[in-house]
Amino acid sequence: MLTVRVQPVRVFALAVAVLLACPRICAPARADDDARWAATAKTYNTYCAQCHGLNRNGKGINAKSMAVQPRDHSDPKGMGPIPDAEIVKAITDGGLSVNKSVLMPAWGKVLSPQQIQDLAAYIRHVCNCGSAANH
Question: First-to-last CA distance in the chain?
Fold first, then answer.
């Protein structure tokens, strides 16, 4: 039988080293994510909030006068099952392209492909519903 001896001092030293390194390793990713979400929130506020609302709940200033109410992007149950590709297509080609409201404009000639991808990821971030790429 093989017996492995763990030296507590080495394990402790390794744990301390990892904890001390984490702020240098982990913080930039969080800062990058925060900057990415902030930039995309600005894009959302410019192009989407009039209908989908500043709270991302489908209650934008234009929603009152719309026959078809905008989708609530903050609703994980409503947003979760929608495939990522469908969200991208709706933003790019408009609501009619995914059999939704004709009132949802196509932003594909206004926004870059990267901005559209970022908006789709941001919507997943807002609803806290993760990716539905496999749905």
Answer: 49
35-41 long-range Cβ contacts below 8 angstroms, 24+ apart:
36/118, 37/122, 37/125, 39/118, 40/115, 40/118, 40/119, 40/121, 40/122, 41/122
- Host H or E run for residue 14: helix 8-47
Domains detected in the chain: 36-127 (1.10.760.10)
pLDDT digits (tens, 9 = 90+) for 35-69: 889 999 999 999 999 999 999 999 999 999 999 99
pTM, to two decimals: 0.74
SS3 assignment for 24-72 = HHHHHHHHHHHHHHHHHHHHHHHHCHHHHCCCCCCCCCCHHHCCCCCCC
Q: Tokens 């390794």 belong to which residue? A: 14
What span, in angstroms and rounded, lies between the C-alpha atoms of 101 and 105?
9
Name the DSSP class of 74.
T
User: Of 76, 93, 86, nearest to 128 (Cα)?
Assistant: 76
